[in-house]
Amino acid sequence: MKEPKEIYFLPVEQLSDDAIQCIEKVFELLDAIKDDCNINNFSRRFTFIREGKAISDVAEIKKDSDGLNHIYINENFCQYLWSVCIYLTAYFENVIHIPMMDAVGINKNGYKPNMVDVEYASDCFFRGRQLLHNFNRDAYWVTPNICNPQQFENIINHANGVYCAAIAFIYAHEFSHNYLGHTQIQQTLSHTIDDEIAADDTAISFIQTEYDSAWGNTYKAGVATVLAALLLMGEDSISGGGTHPDMDVRIENLVAKMDLHEMDPLLGYLGVAVKLWLLVFGGLSIKEDMQQPGFGSYKEIYLFYMEKLKTVRQQRYPKIVKPDWDI
């Protein structure tokens, strides 16, 4: 039997079938896909692009050899996306969520922070971020097989589920461009931002039909993690570049569509992602962060860091600056 390293391009490739199943669970999306295949030149298949180089494109929809509009998703980005899933999951759970439960007296099961999980997840995130600048497949096989995790089983399985839901949202977003007719017209800067917001909104309208299902919270986390991954790709990621909404606007729009309660952990999860960007790219110092007031809800965490992100974006990118990535 061949070793997994010889079979798979990146570890995340092993989750491709699971990601497809996650898409197929969204029945309203499936119905729309069938209609679009019949009347709007949409391809029934989609492709993970394998590249032995740094991440360039995230995902796109374009004509294939049969003249059909086909979705392509960059597998390098997928591996990076998975690393964001596991890092935010471990960090939020152990550094934010458990202490918050203790503070408000709802930690009935007596959960304790596991900083070993956080350290492992941080290492995965570091490896994933390497893909933004260079490519070295072997670096990712230092970590356990993500489909047979053994050690760190809980956080890896959780990350796998969120990752698959994130792919479902990316797919739904790209499909929505075709569904809304965006692929049938000549794009110009004057309307692409509106088109991107419309594609986000339509993708959410499909995904949210599953919010009340057993996988509902995972789908929500998938949407949030896509936004977090895009944000954390670089300093210029907060600028929409004239073709996409600025990232603070995009996050606020999708959070509003989710209609989350102030104590919904997902708000804290997104707040952690924004905080990380601010700390990495100089929008907030560690000293300043340590001096912030205590938070009484996850919404307070989200609003505190989002306000700082919006201020930094307005200061640094008052004009259009196009980022290197695209979705």
* Rg (C-alpha, Å): 19 Å
Gap between N and C termini: 38 Å
Number of strands: 3
Number of helical segments?
12
Based on Cα principal axes, name the global outline. Answer: globular
**Main β-sheet, spatial strand arrangement:** 1-3-2
The secondary-structure element order is HHHEEEHHHHHHHHH
Proportion of residues in β-strands: 5-15%
The parts where pLDDT drops under 50 for at least 5 residues are 1-5
Instruction: Give the overall pLDDT as a whole number.
Output: 88
Oligomeric nature of the chains: single chain
Counting helices, strands and paired strands, the structural category is mainly alpha
Tell me about the largest β-sheet: 3 strands, mixed
Portion of residues within helices? 55-70%
Write structural notes for this entry.
By secondary structure, the protein is mostly helical. Helices cover 57% and strands 6% of the residues. It contains twelve helices and three strands, in the order αααβββααααααααα. The protein has helices at residues 4-7, 16-24, 27-39, 75-104, 115-130, 153-179, 189-207, 216-231, 247-258, 265-280, 286-290, 298-316, and strands at residues 42-49, 59-63, 69-74. It has a three-stranded mixed beta sheet. It starts with a helix and ends in an 11-residue tail after the last helix. Mean pLDDT is 88; it is low at 1-5.
Keywords:
327 residues, disordered N terminus, 12 helices, three-stranded mixed sheet, mainly alpha
